[in-house]
Amino acid sequence: MVVEDGGEVFVVREFDAAKDSSDVEEVERKCEVGPSGKLCLFTDLLGDPLCRIRNSPAFLMLVAEMVVAEKKEIVGMIRGCIKTVTCGTKLCNDHSKPLSTKAAYILGLRVSPSHRRLGIGLKLVCKMEEWFKENGVEYSYIATESDNQPSVKLFTLKCGYSKFRTPSILVQPVFGHRVKVTSRVSIIKLSPSDAETLYRLRFATTEFFPHDIDSILNNKLSLGTYLAVPKGSLCSGANEFLASQPESWAVLSVWNCKEVFKLEVRGASSLRRLFAKTTRLVDRAFPALQLPSVPDVFRPFGLHFLYGLGGKGPLAVNFMKALCGFAHNFAKQHGCGVVATEVASLDPLRFGVPHWKRLSCDEDLWCIKRLSGGNNIDGVGDWTMSTPRTSIFVDPREF
């Protein structure tokens, strides 16, 4: 597709890994998140621009190539992936039946700072939506920082998206010492098949639950699903757990983002760096005090993402805290800098997730758009108009 705008000519085409990778990396570098002169988060894709979508059932990456005096330069890109997810529920014989839809997720929209306000971002979104429609997608959604006004305005004012959900990203640094996990909880690792059984039976009605959960759980990046139950519970797998479910329990799975990309905090002042280094030195000098220390996030670091968080019972929050402590120690063992998760703003389990407010995001804005008027959610109506629910399933392949 060739577009002319104000005398500028650019082509929107499919990404070609053989010739575009280095140019895409350069655009990513120029588009570091965060205003100039302030802390910003840089993502190192480890030489694979497709790393954040290639594990999805269907995916596409487009680039915008500027043509000036026969010289070509990549000035923007966008990524998208398609899957089938739960969008609502329908009461059937006193039971909630999950209703599904084909949804697409847009991520990684970047336009080089020197080529903005030329309509490139809008054209990239429109071209990606064309691909979605060709593949039967009914809803398209994106996630962006609520204070990223250029992005919010692009999608809500120009692309027809509406503000939909505001989950919270919770981030905990991996300290130099292990977190103590209560002995009153047993933590059981489930096999991928047992984890699938549990998730399908207990979470199939959760908003955004992916119908290919088996593909996620069996992916090499999924490091396991862990179930927390009261100490002494006779439970070794999903069948035993479902046959005799304890009053309180919690579950989560771990995704190894460290093998996909690495992060780095840039723009920190010398004072901030010195403070962080001091916390590590003091922690190493007095390990018995178990003082919280700031890992070296000013160099590339990896992370584990916790997904599929769920639980039930009066002690579910405590059990989730125990699981998060276990996940922290697991991440420390794997050399990660942080552990992160994303939960619905109304989810009570969020109070069991330890996190640092300075590293977290209270309101990650999700926007949604209906691309077609299919009838696959009869009884629910337009998903874009539905009210927020208490929980949400965040796909680790899209984090």
From TrEMBL:
- What domain of life does the native source organism fall in? Eukaryota
State a single Pfam family of this protein: Acetyltransf_1
Q: Which UniProt keywords apply?
A: Acyltransferase, Transferase
The GO terms this record gives for MF are: acyltransferase activity, transferring groups other than amino-acyl groups
- Which PROSITE patterns does the record associate with it? GNAT
Please list the residue ranges annotated as the N-acetyltransferase domain: 10-182
Question: Which InterPro entries does the annotation name?
Answer: Acyl_CoA_acyltransferase, GNAT_dom, Plant_NAT
Q: Which family does it belong to?
A: Belongs to the acetyltransferase family.
- The protein's name is Acyltransferase
